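Quick entry, no commentary yet.
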Amino acid sequence: MKTSMHMSGLRELGQAFAALNDDIQKKAGRNAVSAGANVIKKEAKKLVPVLAVDTITRNPGTIKKNIRSKAVKKKDGTFEARVWVKGLGAKKISAFKASTGNAAKDNPDDPFYWHFVEFGTAKAPAQPFMRPAFEQQKVVAAEKIKSNLLNRINKEAARIGKTIGKA
């Protein structure tokens, strides 16, 4: 489920951003996009359903604890943020199998089933949390990115005696 949002009217901000050196661009861009992703991540954590009582194979809050976000600079110079549910790594899965003798699906700390919750199954209705989090917070996240980037540009510009608008 890849979604994106484009903002218009940011020509001056883009020009000011392009005037920064590459290292500052990378740090400022990644920081700003990460701040926007965190807004969506926090909303997803609020919306995700949590088990009321733990079971042998599921702990309450497993999906919630594994929602992550990351911002990266792509090869074309743009920045991208990802918000996802992180699964267990191979080492943790094999350690669980070795210590308990149970199958990986029985690990109560593995959120592999998050997509069953998000999209539903033949027998269980969907309880979406990622898409609604994005839809509810996309404007707030975009504004957070914009203000974060503007603050960073002004901070760098202040070092050389210039300012670009207000946050």
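second:
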Amino acid sequence: MINLNRNALHHFFIYVVFFLTSGSFGEPIVIKGFSVKELLGTPIEKIRFCTRDYQPVVFQIDEMTEDGEYVCSQGENPNSDSGNGILDSLDELVFLWEDCQPLNTQDSLYSDNKLLRLRVSRAKEIREICICKDGSVPVSSKRYIYYDHESRMLRTPWYYAEFGLDRFHFVKAGVKKEDGDRYVDLTNELRIEILLRALWGLIPIRYSEDNMVCLVKRFKTGPLRLIRRGDFHLNLGLGLRGSRAIVNQICYPQIIKVPVYVHAPVRFGSFFRDAYIEMTPVLKDVPGFSFRIPQAEFSRKIGGEQQLDTMIYLMPNHQFMAVSDDNMGYGWVLKAEIEDQYLKNSSFIYRKPSLRLGSVDCGFRLNIHNLPRGYYEITNWVFFQSGDFASFKDEFRSVIEPAIVTAADGDYQNELSASGVHKKLSD
């Protein structure tokens, strides 16, 4: 267990947690500038999110270039000069579903010179958020993201994660205890293994998370999300690099988006008989926590001495797995842009003892069969629990079934799960 014994940080966390409804999940809503056409051309410093009676609501606006790059002002290679300070059509506006007000479906949407109302729908529930372009309206003092780039440590009121040097994967992570000051040190690292069997399966070729290099040279920290922009490549050995791309790791108060980029230069069946990608967080022996796959009715404790090495044959893609003690923990959703026909016999994994320095490996294996040549994005979504597990296990649908934002001119989908890969680099 890690005790974050810093007075300023302690008061920061207590303040933030107090303002959140107990058991409420902080689902981010992301919209593009073109969704609010009335605001295009407005200086960003004058835009405010608020309630109908002008009470401030926490928000974040991130500028984007025409090439799909975030404008990030921090790091060794910032691109601040690519921004113009004006809301453009590709810029992103971020707020939380929980900050939206309940709305009567009979209420009409309207806007005037000062207030713009948006309707946000999720399942059968409808809420409202307001935006104004009046710099005199106060900005919310809430802030959920705390990041130290030198140590690569991210903290929020729900979790902490320490990222590897020049990597996107974490080397240590934990979840918040209910007192708001301490974390349960739950995870050692993210173990990744890529296996390719060449020449009729006679030659195995293996890669690990250490081969997946991501040089993070700029980032942006705001009240609602951290953007780590990285130059990604797979280190193939002998000075060779594959799967090169620009990717964005985006961290929200209760969600982390971790994209992995794979380039198949030829159809897999032409050279490889078998191939798989295995991702398994290495968990510590923490009493009370268990690995759970609700759709398979699987639950197994991560602590104790009893050993088990098994695969749970349920397609992991778009499915939910979790490590929880009922009141706190994390969930994981895989969203691979690969058709299921190329992922036959994929499965979840429970392996105790761990292949690394830990108690158990809990994750998934994607078996890849005859995959056509092309570029593939595999996004891992990590959710951090608040409230009971019964409600938490359904929160993953926020990335599978995005909320709808209705403006005066039509409906727009929540951009939360939009691609994290914006531009390919030449190999």
